[in-house]
């Protein structure tokens, strides 16, 4: 396959001399420290953590390290270390559509932008789009992305092109393999229930032992997946003890459609189907009423919230304050590049909070500490993975911030948690590690140079324009 320029996408080769992965998972332990760690809203000075096999083993005071441990210590002087940020919703290929359908209404955006280009993208184009999206994310401190992928062509080769891009760059990937059977969409999205289930199951099995790739089922939405397909996705998630993701009540039209067709709100309808469970992660959930929120909280259903995308498409504002108070676990997503032209969870933390303040006309209704958990630990919860915390038995995915950067002034020692949510710019990121491997160094990706990604995007766009 031509789409894997830099490595192998073949899961059978894992750990068998496959370059980076061998060193990743069989290396000696290392210790890391900085001026302080910032995790789970705690500022931890004089603290180091040990990493081996891509996982954090333990934390200890720097002053308590033995001579042998100190010899293996990487200390970032003048810096702070946070967990890597978790992007719980994205469509990577849409990064190639930035600028093409900006400022359009939803149906123009979908039909003249998304569907038009999705019809002509090859596996090489999809790979290039994923390289573009994931490279931008890494530079913004995102160490895990959930790619909700639906250009499947009744097979898994395209999904494997996305996986290859993640592997080549070194970002951790949850592949939300979409189940789609609405015949109003391009044929490439559509599968019968049996084919969708068989393909999704095959992909889950292919990557069952992959430490960096996790596959979950994702019935597209109430308009994109039939009742049978939604139930099938839920059953697959139960059989594999994994979450399943689904767009829910993004636009007002979907709520109205369900009320007209079934006399039920989207959440009531999902409950009636028996799929409103604690494994379901709803994407967006903008158009919910009070009883929907209570029902969702009671079922343990979670939310992946995409504030910038909801703003760009004029969807409305999800009731985040109310959902947090009800006890719903909320993570953050950037969504695709064609509905949010920036791929940064730091941006989403900020947007999430500003929107609640403006909608409720009350600046106390959102806090940086709540948003920080949404961008880190709760992202791990919603992907069913131990991510987003610098704690033992969590992934060794972390970001090193330079405390001398202009955007972290004044007084980054005292206000670091607030500055990371409201002020920091990507220039402050000194390094990004995924599974204990340094992927970004002094603002540049070390696995695949930025210039290579830019050239790939240019070539891809030229090719696509010729085929329009
Ligand atoms: Zn989406």
Describe what this molecule looks like in 3D.
The chain has 468 residues and is α/β, with parallel strands linked by helices. It has 2 domains: 12-84 and 387-451, Urease, subunit C, domain 1 (Roll), CATH 2.30.40; 85-383, Metal-dependent hydrolases (TIM Barrel, Alpha-Beta Barrel). Helices cover 39% and strands 22% of the residues. Strands 1, 2, 3, 4, 5, 14, 15, 16 and 17 form a 9-stranded mixed β-sheet that branches. A 4-stranded parallel β-sheet has the order 6-7-8-9, sandwiched between helices. β11, α10 (290-299) and β12 (302-305) form a beta-alpha-beta unit. The two termini are 24 Å apart. The site of zinc ion (ZN) has 6 residues, from loops.
Give the secondary structure arrangement, pairings included.
Elements: H1 20-26, E1 30-39, E2 42-45, E3 47-52, E4 55-61, H2 67-71, E5 73-83, E6 85-90, H3 106-118, H4 123-139, E7 142-149, H5 157-169, E8 172-179, H6 193-206, E9 213-219, H7 227-239, E10 244-248, H8 252-262, H9 266-273, E11 280-284, H10 290-299, E12 302-305, H11 307-312, H12 320-326, E13 330-332, H13 345-360, H14 368-375, H15 377-383, E14 398-402, H16 412-422, E15 429-434, E16 437-441, E17 444-445, H17 450-467
Parallel strand pairs: 1-5, 6-7, 7-8, 8-9, 10-11, 11-12, 12-13
Antiparallel strand pairs: 1-2, 1-3, 3-4, 5-14, 14-15, 15-16, 16-17
The structure holds zinc ion (ZN).
Residues 89, 91, 148, 247, 283, 335 line the site of zinc ion.
């Amino acid at each position: 396959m031509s789409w894997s320029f830099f490595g192998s996408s073949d899961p059978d080769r894992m750990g068998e001399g496959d370059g980076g992965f061998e060193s990743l998972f069989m290396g000696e332990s290392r210790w890391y420290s900085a001026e302080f760690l910032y995790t789970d809203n705690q500022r931890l000075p004089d603290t180091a953590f040990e990493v081996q096999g891509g996982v954090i083993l333990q934390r200890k005071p720097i002053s308590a390290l033995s001579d042998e441990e100190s010899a293996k210590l990487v200390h970032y002087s003048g810096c702070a270390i946070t967990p890597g940020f978790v992007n719980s919703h994205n469509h990577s290929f849409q990064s190639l559509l930035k600028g093409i359908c900006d400022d359009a209404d939803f149906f123009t955006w979908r039909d003249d932008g998304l569907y038009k280009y999705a019809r002509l993208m090859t596996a090489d184009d999809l790979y290039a789009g994923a390289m573009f999206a994931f490279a931008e994310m890494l530079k913004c401190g995102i160490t895990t992305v959930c790619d909700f992928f639906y250009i499947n062509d009744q097979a898994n080769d395209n999904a494997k092109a996305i996986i290859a891009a993640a592997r080549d760059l070194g970002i951790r990937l949850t592949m939300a393999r979409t189940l789609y059977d609405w015949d109003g969409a391009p044929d490439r999205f559509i599968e019968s229930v049996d084919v969708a289930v068989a393909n999704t199951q095959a992909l889950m099995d292919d990557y069952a032992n992959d430490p960096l790739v996790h596959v979950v089922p994702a019935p597209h939405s109430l308009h994109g997946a039939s009742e049978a397909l939604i139930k099938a996705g839920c059953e697959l998630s139960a059989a594999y003890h994994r979450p399943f993701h689904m767009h829910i009540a993004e636009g007002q039209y979907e709520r109205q459609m369900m009320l007209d067709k079934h006399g039920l709100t989207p959440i009531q309808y999902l409950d009636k189907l028996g799929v409103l469970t604690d494994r379901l992660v709803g994407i967006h959930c903008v158009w919910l009423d009070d009883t929907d929120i209570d029902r969702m909280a009671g079922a343990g259903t979670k939310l992946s919230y995409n504030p910038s995308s909801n703003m760009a498409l004029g969807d409305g504002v999800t009731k985040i304050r109310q959902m947090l108070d009800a006890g719903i676990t909320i993570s953050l997503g950037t969504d695709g590049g064609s509905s949010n032209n920036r791929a940064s969870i730091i941006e989403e933390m900020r947007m999430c909070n500003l929107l609640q303040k403006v909608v409720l006309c009350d600046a106390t209704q959102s806090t940086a500490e709540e948003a920080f958990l949404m961008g880190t630990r709760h992202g791990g919860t919603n992907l069913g993975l131990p991510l987003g915390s610098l704690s033992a038995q969590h992934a060794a995915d972390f970001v090193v911030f330079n405390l001398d950067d202009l955007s972290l002034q004044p007084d980054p020692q005292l206000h670091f948690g607030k500055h990371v949510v409201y002020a920091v710019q990507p220039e402050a990121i000194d390094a990004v590690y995924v599974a204990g491997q340094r992927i970004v160094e002094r603002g540049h990706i070390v696995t695949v140079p930025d210039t290579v990604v830019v050239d790939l995007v240019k070539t891809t766009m030229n090719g696509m324009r010729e085929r329009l």
